[in-house]
Amino acid sequence: MDTAIASKDLTNVFHLSNGDVASIVKGYNFGGKTGIGFLFIMESINKKDERGSMYCTFIDMATSKVLLTERLTEKPGGFGLRNYWAKSIYEAIDDIKDKKFEEWARNK
Asked: How many domains does the chain have?
């Protein structure tokens, strides 16, 4: 997925597949770093539904292998374009701290 779609037509809404996420990760250059990395891969921002969707993705930086990815959708808020959508990332971080990280750790 290397192009973004800007549309008001909700029939254009799509979700990334696990293969799409793996492809995006393969495109990153981690500069020789090793260990486990974490990425937010933004899928969409939808002003009509007031939701920002992203894939929270753990990766092995040495091999660019996706270890775990999960789609989270959060509510934006605040003033200004940047802060409005950054709030959805902030909410995802809170969700991860409050419950998701423990859930992911239990399932691995």
From this structure: 1
